[in-house]
Design the sequence.
């Protein structure tokens, strides 16, 4: 007879009827219900060495930088292609032809720019991970040197002057990004 009075979920309308009580699966464990669902908010790390490490592994870094570069390039190129496709519309074009022109232009420009920035991300991540392994330090010098090397290597086929300019631009861009990151870490509470 006692089993018929135990309410095991399902019908919320009958939960507060006289003679019925809610079923608590933790009642035999002597644990208060509030403690069971109090989950930690900090990351759980298995080994102490993992908590000290502040950098992604080379594989994670390679995947992240390549993916971010491709996505940013595809979105930017798609936007530029959209603008160009809308500009080249002619007076007598049907709506179907205009849509086709916009889609072709967006796809072509987005794919081209996405591939270029994906390769830049791949080169940068490879160089930065290689420098971290070579120097056995993870600091801003690795990032700036990887930016210099990436710009120079990406434009090396265009000649030494173009490679030097691209290397300087890459180093300056990464140096600025590292400086902004340090400012955010210091002054913006996250």
Sequence:
């Amino acid at each position: 007879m006692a089993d018929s009075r135990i309410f095991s979920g399902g019908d919320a309308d009958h939960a507060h009827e006289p003679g019925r009580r809610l079923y608590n699966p933790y009642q035999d464990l002597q644990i208060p219900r509030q403690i069971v669902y109090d989950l930690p908010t900090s990351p759980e790390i298995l080994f102490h060495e993992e908590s000290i490490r502040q950098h992604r592994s080379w594989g994670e870094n390679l995947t992240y930088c390549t993916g971010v570069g491709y996505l940013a390039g595809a979105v930017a190129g798609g936007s530029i292609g959209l603008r160009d496709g809308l500009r080249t519309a002619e007076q007598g074009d049907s709506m179907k032809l205009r849509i086709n022109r916009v889609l072709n232009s967006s796809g072509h420009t987005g794919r081209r720019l996405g591939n270029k920035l994906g390769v830049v991300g791949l080169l940068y991540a490879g160089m930065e991970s290689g420098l971290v392994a070579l120097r056995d330090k993870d600091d801003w010098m690795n990032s700036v040197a990887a930016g210099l090397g990436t710009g120079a290597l990406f434009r090396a086929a265009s000649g030494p002057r173009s490679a030097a300019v691209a290397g300087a631009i890459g180093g300056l861009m990464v140096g600025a990004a590292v400086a902004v990151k340090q400012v955010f870490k210091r002054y913006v509470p996250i």
